[in-house]
Amino acid sequence: MTLLKPPDRDWDETPVSSPGPVPLPFDVAVVDPDPALREHFARLLRDVAPVVSCPDTGALATRQVPGQPTVAVFGLGAADADGLAAIGRLTRTRPEVAAILVAPDLSTALFQEALRSGVRDVLEFPVTGEALTESVDRVGRSLTGAPPPVPEPSGQGRVVTVTSMKGGSGKSVVATNLAVALARRSDRPVALLDADLQFGDVAVMLRLSAPHTIVDAVPAMERLDAQFLKTLLVRHDPSGLLVLPAPLDPSLADRIAGADVLRIVEILRSFCSHVVIDTPAQFNDVVLAVLEAADDILVVAGMELPNVKNTKLGLQTLQRLGIPESRIRLLVNRSNSKVQLDVKEVERTLGFRAEAHIPSDIVVPQAVNRGVSVVLDAPRSDVARSFEQLADLFSGTPAEAPKKTRGLFGRF
Hints:
The protein is α/β, with parallel strands linked by helices. It contains 15 helices and 13 strands. The protein has helices spanning about 35-45, 55-65, 80-95, 110-115, 130-145, 170-185, 200-205, 225-230, 260-270, 285-295, 305-320, 345-350, 365-370, 375, 380-390, and strands at about 25-30, 50-55, 70-75, 95-105, 120-125, 160-165, 190-195, 235, 240-245, 275-280, 295-300, 330-335, 355-360. Strand 11 (about 295-300), helix 11 (about 305-320) and strand 12 form a beta-alpha-beta unit.
């Protein structure tokens, strides 16, 4: 159902084997001064919807019918200050237009500036047809409020990405204890991936001596499979948890791209019941990748005002990325701290109900300093019980009946 004026010609005259685009509740346009690039994007999207080609935002504003939901894919010509300013003016005056930017370099600074300009998603060039199609579909459905397609049951593991918007929130403590609690109650392997590639602490927190890290998977990325990936995982003996640690040298983080991490997550979930991902307190290409891959995003908020402020900004960013609220779960850490704020005030400020509360307890730093998890070191403490209740959100196995420690990869 396109109400845009039709393009002058079809971009792809070659025969297509697919039955053609499926009618969508929104229109699709590609915008760039380079006609060859517009044609390239149109070819990538030919199975999504009829695509209208525009050289600039002025042409799009002329051809787009006001009020008609439209997803506009902006090419490399818009990935600068002038281009983003033009996108910002368009999306402010026509909120029914949702912008996707394809940029030559997916830097943190560009991503932040694009979000400020009203861009809903940023993709790195060259972009695959699958990635561009998924982005257009997700942004379009977010724009129109259409429900996402219901996925077919796959038997794949559940991916839980643990994130926070400010350092010191206790995010890594939450990730490690959640993963340990899940591993103790699962018949299948549970994996913990440390995606804080520069300063990840997962291995230290679990007192693991890791002969391999995530960077060892990169040279074999084209032939990476489950069998090889299993050789890189280190086992946490007390729980049976499988861990893929962050690089030991922060400079090695640059060798790992978001696509690499996505491939690793895809393989892990093929033989694990759960994949828990710890992330740094920032939005970079790796974090964006694991947020997109997650079935659940566990946002860890603290009880201090700067933390609450950053958490609110982070939640707004997730909304702009088109991530459904149904995938976001809020956890308030140190929820019993006497800091002249209570959990209800934090919830009102964030506009989210906290699904989990973790109390402050001296056993937490004591366990961290000894390299053990609280759920194993102080299982009768209030904080350990809170972590078990958190695991209940993601597991059908009750906390009262954890599984015994298994062999390296359990049963699968």
